[in-house]
Give the backbone structure.
Amino acid sequence: MRFEKAVQAVENCTAFRFFKRSTMKKHICLLAMIAAIFSLCGCGFQPPASKYQTNNVTRVTVILPHEDDIYWGDVKRGIEDHIEECEQWNIDIQVQIPQLNYNISQMTQLINRAIAARTDVIVVQGTQDKDFVSSMREAISQGIQVICIDTDVDSDSLPEHLYIGSDNYAAGQMMGDHLAQLMHGRGSVSIMSGAEGYPNLEQRIKGIESVIERYDGMVLSEIVYDHYDALTAVEVYHSLQSGSALACIEGTGAAAIEKVLTSSDQKFSYIVGFDNSSTISEGIVNGIIKQDQYGIGQKLVEQLIYYQMHGNFEASEIYTKFEWVDASNEQEAE
């Protein structure tokens, strides 16, 4: 359409009408017309760019703490399934993983390398480790956008960043509410967490504690850590005192314990977990909080495209869904 308008503009000019009167002058006019068309196209008559194209490439470094077949594997798939959309928007995503699972020192080194490489966006699981946070603050000071996925860092430690993941305090409350129903508001609760220093896990604990405080008959007996390792989770389980309920607040604990649990090993009347279980229908694990890991990766891509379009993110927090899954709705949740 703009090309046609340019041609029409040339045809309407007086010089064009004059040159049409002779054959030789027609040739001259044709050359003039072509030159004028290119001149007009260079002065605002550009064809509209595709909505999937921008001139600047946004380079994104995604640092995942671990690559597994379930949790972080689903996050990665949520990203990779939308790589084509990123490429259409000139977004280049590179996924990096430390050699050792959840190794904060190695993840910090990867952040520092991304800063040195002048990447535009760094995506990482948050932690309150001093050196880790310091590196992320350095990235922000150099104009690099920082996105925390799955685990946030509090805004006092890390201002001006985006968080994508569950509302972990609300998820802890949901687990606490279902525990209270299972226990009829009476008994002791042991919590198995992944490691200290992860704000998402601390928020889940606070959410459970807020529910326990509402019941005179419930008490939190102890908090132990499996360090995101299945063998450690089983060892820690055997070291626990018997109680009414065990709440495994990250994906490793319940998934590891249920594989080796026998009737003689059953120290708790109820076991609940996060994200993974193959024995809900058998009653070994009574229920889980299931997060939307794939949705974290998908939401990340959506926000990167939004940033490419607008130069900012839609909000400082983007929450993904989670739900309680037990024998009554296990099939629906799959």
Q: What stands out?
A: Residues 1-7, 13-25, 27-32, 34-53 have pLDDT under 50 and may be disordered. The radius of gyration is 29 Å. The CA atoms of residues 43 and 246 lie 70 Å apart. The first strand starts at residue 58 and ends at 63.
